[in-house]
Design brief:
This protein is mostly helical. Helix content is 69%, strand content 1%. The chain contains 23 helices and 2 strands. It has a two-stranded antiparallel ribbon with strand order 1-2. Helix 6 runs antiparallel to helix 16. The protein is globular and about 70 Å long. The two termini are 39 Å apart.
Length: 548
């Protein structure tokens, strides 16, 4: 008997394809940028010594990322083997970017300022990851149920909100700050990855963009322009970080950080849930692109590799990344993920990250991140019914609020620090000035309190609002009521629309919002139970919408 269909026993997936070069340069530079930012936070914000950063933390980080990328390459290989498909793309993974800033500014920096000891700050960060890891592992068994009952438009809509705000906006702004490099590199990527243009000898577009960016940046130094901020002195100084360091167990440092358990648990639990939902969204995104991965195994893997990294000295958690459809669209399959793991080991164990930072202008990499954000935002609309588009837009709104609030907070903090630095503001007046500035914002048309409430727990808020929107559009009012009730409970305890987890003295963190969700739940339930079809006149666009 002969057959033209490959089976699990006779199909051997290719470990490397030409498209993996594109994905490797794109995803690899994405990981590199995050590692460079992370290194800067450790050295310049937390003032950690280079011996700790390059000798302990980065080697442990490299081990965690290598284990993660190799595991997801393995999952992709097994999926390709089982299905007989040659287009399977591995899930991207790396350091969770939102948590990178949270653990730095909310956990480690306050401890460092209070104790004056960066080693204690490091220990506190390790404990934070320790608890997050177990939340992910336990949540892995709950996540499939949540995915089953939540509409795709809600899952992908809240993910699109993350991509538009926290993935796309910063690289877009960086491009326009140095347009001579940013826009040129963006055009190189755009015409290849969207327009299908092939470069000579099949050179990956990502590599072409980086090379052109380097030529412009270094060439501009000849004319004294200094585009990209690169210099020979900076490159020479970066070579001082060369060396070889392997991960060393840091179990003692983990348990010594338990003295800060109170402040750690306040953020570890809600952000563990954030990780849970984000990972579900990203698995859903991969399935929408054609690659179905087991949610439980993905979340459990994230928890396990994060725990290993933590016990070896890494205070940053691992996460499945947003962007699978983007890497798949540019030809990524299995090999790009494993190759990135090898790259990370070389970068972190040999201490050459700072050299790359001094050699490659970051703005040349920014267009790659913008491209990924564009694809993820588009996917939410392209892989869901057209009539669900309003629900996707609704799911975007909490992320817009969260991003706007972050910009205001950052600007306000910078202004107050500058005022103190020049002697124009006494230290004991900082709090009063900040409160007065925020109170004056509504008169200028900036509804800061609205941004604060709506943007709190944005990924959960977006999911809940998106699900309510979908079920109302589908006239499944009972399910819409259930999600509104879930929103009331989550809001009561501060997991969404709140700045901290708790019960707010017994009435809830934001009681008015929790009550409003509860009233919404009651109204939707009554409508579903007692409403009749003659009370409903569908919008003309809905009448024409195709059935699922």
């Amino acid at each position: 008997m002969s057959t033209g269909t490959a089976t699990q026993t006779d199909f051997k997936p290719a470990l490397w394809t030409p498209g993996d070069w594109n994905a490797f340069f794109g995803f690899g530079t994405n990981i590199l940028v995050n590692m460079l930012v992370l290194t800067g936070l450790l050295r310049f914000v937390l003032k950690m010594p280079d011996s700790l950063v390059f000798g302990r933390i980065l080697p442990a980080l490299g081990l965690m990322l290598c284990l993660s990328t190799f595991y997801y390459a393995f999952l992709a290989y097994r999926l390709a083997q089982r299905t007989g498909r040659s287009d399977v793309c591995a899930l991207p993974s790396g350091v969770s970017v939102p948590h990178m800033f949270i653990v730095t500014f909310v956990i480690m920096l306050p401890v460092a300022l209070k104790t004056g000891d960066p080693m204690k700050a490091w220990s506190a960060g390790l404990v934070w990851v320790f608890f997050q890891s177990f939340i992910l592992m336990i949540g892995g068994f709950i996540a499939p149920v949540i995915r089953k009952i939540t509409p795709r438009a809600a899952l992908l809509g809240t993910l699109a909100g993350v991509s538009v705000t926290f993935i796309s906006m910063r690289p877009a702004l960086e491009m326009y700050m140095t347009p001579q490099i940013g826009l040129v590199c963006f055009a190189i990527i755009l015409v290849s990855w969207f327009g299908g243009v092939k470069y000579p000898r099949g050179i990956p577009a990502g590599l072409v963009a980086i090379a052109v960016g380097m030529i412009i940046a270094w060439g501009s130094n000849i004319f004294g322009l200094g585009l990209g901020g690169l210099s020979l002195k900076g490159l020479g100084d970066a070579f001082a970080s060369f060396g070889f360091s392997v991960p060393i167990p840091a179990v003692g440092q983990v348990f010594s950080g338990f003295e800060f358990l109170g402040v750690i648990l306040v953020t570890a639990i809600p952000f563990g849930i954030y990780d849970l939902v984000e990972a579900m969204d990203n698995v859903e995104s991969a399935e929408a692109a054609g690659d179905e991965y087991p949610t439980t195994r993905v979340l459990t893997a994230d928890g396990i590799v994060s725990l290993i990294g933590c016990l070896m000295g890494n205070p940053f958690i691992n996460a499945v990344y947003i962007g699978h459809p983007g890497w798949k669209a540019m030809g990524g399959r299995i090999g790009y993920s494993a190759a990135t793991g090898v790259m990370v080991i070389l970068l972190s164990w040999f201490g050459i990250i700072s050299v790359l930072l001094a050699l490659v202008p970051v703005v040349a990499i920014s267009p790659i991140l913008l491209y990924i954000g564009m694809l993820i935002g588009a996917q939410a609309f392209q892989t869901t019914p057209a009539r669900h588009a309003p629900a996707i837009v609704l799911a975007l709104t909490p992320h817009l609020a969260a991003w706007a609030k972050l910009q205001i907070d950052t600007m306000l903090g910078s202004t107050l620090n500058a005022a103190q630095a020049v002697g124009g503001l006494a230290a004991d007046k900082v709090g009063d000035v900040k409160a007065a500035a925020i109170a004056a914002l509504p008169q200028q048309g900036v509804l800061y309190r609205g941004l604060e409430v709506m943007g709190g727990g944005s990924i959960l808020a977006g999911l809940i609002l998106g699900a309510i929107g979908v079920f109302v559009i589908e006239r499944d009012f009972a399910k819409a009521s259930a999600f509104a009730l879930a929103g009331a409970v989550l809001t009561y305890f501060g997991f969404m629309h709140g700045e901290a987890v708790g019960i707010g003295g017994g009435l809830g963190v934001t009681p008015a919002v929790a009550l409003a969700y509860a009233v919404m739940a009651g109204g939707l339930f009554a409508l579903g139970k007692f409403g009749t079809s003659e009370h409903f006149v569908p919008h003309p666009d809905m009448q024409a919408a195709p059935a699922e």
